[in-house]
Amino acid sequence: MAMMQGVQKNTLYVGGLAEEVNESILHAAFIPFGDIKDVKTPLDQATQKHRSFGFVTFLEREDAAAAMDNMDGAELYGRVLTVNYALPERIKGGEQGWAAQPIWADADTWFERQQQEEEMRRIETENRAAMQAAEDLHRKQVTEQREGEKEEEIEIKDDPMAKAEAEIVQQ
C-alpha cells in the first residue's frame, strides 16, 4: 500500500537501551506480545557496542501495536524505553541517512499520507454503509416474500370454496 510506505507497522524502534541489553534480552522483553521475526541492535563501528537503540520486528501488526502500547515508557535495566513504529531506512550512512534530515523534511508527504488515509477511511465507511443497505434491502425482500406465502395459506383457510378445492386436489 502506498500510504503505509512511511511507517513500518510491524517493526518497532526501541530507544533508551542500557549498555547491558543485547538482542536476546530485547527479544525476551518483547516476546510476550507475540511472535518476533527479527531483533536488531545496530553497533557503533568504533566501540562495537550498540548505540542505545534497537529494532524489533513482529510477524503481526497487532502484536507490534500491543508491544508499543505496553512497552513505551516501561523500564528495562533501569532505563526508560521509548517505543515507536520504525521509520524505513533511507540510503545507509553518511549525509543521506535519517540523522541528516531535519524532522520537518517529510512534513509535506506526511500531510499527504494523512489525507490519503482519511480518504481511505471515508471510502471504507461508505462501502460498509452501502453493503449494510444492500443487506437490509435483501432481508426486507425475503421477509415480504415469506409474508406473501403465509397470506396465501391464510386465504385458503378462510375461504370455504378454496378449502373444498384444496381437499379435492389432495384426493
Model description:
The chain has a four-stranded antiparallel sheet with strand order 2-3-1-6, covered by helices on one side. A two-stranded antiparallel ribbon has the order 4-5. It has helices at residues 23-30, 61-71, 107-158, 160-170; strands at residues 8-15, 36-40, 53-58, 75-76, 79-80, 82-86. The model is unreliable at 1-5 and 91-97 (pLDDT under 50). It is an alpha+beta fold and 171 residues long.
Biggest sheet layout: 4 strands, antiparallel
Within the largest sheet, what's the order of strands? Answer: 2-3-1-6
Number of strands: 6
- Name the overall outline: elongated
Rg, nearest Å: 31 Å
Order of H and E elements = EHEEHEEEHH
The pLDDT mean sits at: 82
Number of DSSP helical runs: 4
Strand content: 15-25%
Structural class of the secondary elements?
Answer: alpha+beta
